[in-house]
Design goal:
This is DUF1292 domain-containing protein. This protein is of the alpha+beta class. 20% of the residues lie in helices and 40% in strands. It has a five-stranded antiparallel beta sheet. Strand 4 and strand 5 form a beta hairpin.
Length: 98
């Protein structure tokens, strides 16, 4: 996944961050910041960075909606993961070319 530089050149507002607590596979909780959202095949996805480790790679989650609520879901399917990462990388390349 493409690295995001968490500084004054970010494309998001640091004062109004969406913070999520995400538990990793080892049971460790991380405060994550949603830095980008995009759509792939009519499914929304979110890119999150560890709030306390901006040098770490971002993580992509699927955004699921139920009625008026939305929540983040891990991408477990390897085919979906590869497809979404490819689309995200294309978006990043296009933005870098602008």
């Amino acid at each position: 996944m493409s690295e995001h530089i968490h500084d004054e050149n970010c494309n998001h507002d640091h004062d109004e961050e969406d913070i999520f607590v995400v538990t990793d596979k080892d049971g460790v909780e991380h405060e994550m910041v949603m830095v980008y959202t995009f759509e792939a095949e009519n499914q929304p996805y979110a890119v999150l960075l560890d709030r306390n480790d901006p040098e770490a790679d971002g993580v992509i989650f699927r955004i699921e909606e139920e009625e008026e609520d939305a929540y983040l879901e891990s991408i477990e399917d390897e085919e979906e993961w590869e497809r979404v990462v490819k689309i995200y990388n294309q978006i990043i390349e296009e933005q870098a070319a602008e």
